[in-house]
Amino acid sequence: MSDSTPLPEVTAPYGTGAQAAPQRRIRVPHLQAMTDRGEKWAMLTAYDMYAAEIFDEAGIPVLLVGDSAGNNVYGFETTVPVTVDHLVPLVRAVTSAAKHAMVVADLPFGSYQASPQQALATATRFMKEGMAHAVKLEGGRPMVPEVELLVRAGIPVMGHIGFTPQSEHVLGGYKVQARGSGADKLMDDALALEEAGCFAVVIEMVPVPAAKAVADALRIPVIGIGAGPEVDAQVLVWQDMAGLRGGKAPRFVKKYANLRAELAQAAREYADEVRSGAFPAAENSFEE
User: Fold this and answer.
1) Distance CA 180, CA 162 (A)
2) Is 189 annotated as a binding residue?
3) For 40, 111, 170, 222, which has the most beta carbons within 10 A of its beta carbon?
4) What stretch of H or E contains 268?
């Protein structure tokens, strides 16, 4: 899209309640327009209809059905075992429930790296069967042929560079990327993905200066996770954000709730009432 082409405005304060005018589906031009205006925006993962409904109503403009479902839904240690068949039903649930947010589907490990044609076949499944609005893939310059073919086919593509979880065995585990000379590679990958047609790029676990340099250089939105505040948007795994996951959280996570404790307390109270006979009470029962 040329700089002279006007981008559509978001027509209502997104997620501001019943008094707001009806909001259209968020699309690529809306995200670009927000970034062009300097408006930062949030992305969250979602893997089921209830999370999708809640986040959509809260005004989150982009929902990512990530291969992080491996860690947060299926109980895998990494994202590597996740398959297309694991994710397609989750994508369909989220897209069916979210009325306004853009839904982005992750292409899992092994489903796109073999060739651009494999990437197109996988992305087509997510668009047709999962009803996704866009897809995300990991990798920088080597993924340019895949990105170009998907974009040419009319599929919006979000890139992902820096720390790429699908490559954790090569990267030596969860480590900060783009330190020292690695910042040059991060920049090269980002520019290559933008030139190939990506509408946005996620950069994960990189130092703030490297992230800022990429955000300053790219026109498309740069979405950070563990990349500091100097980017255009932020993404978190929702179970991390809401405090559902146990154990130590990554440094870049901020917990906005403690759902793990709330659910545990609710479960204990339910079990106690069942044992005591307090539940079900008359109001929970049917009379003849």
Assistant:
1) 13
2) no
3) 222
4) helix 259-276
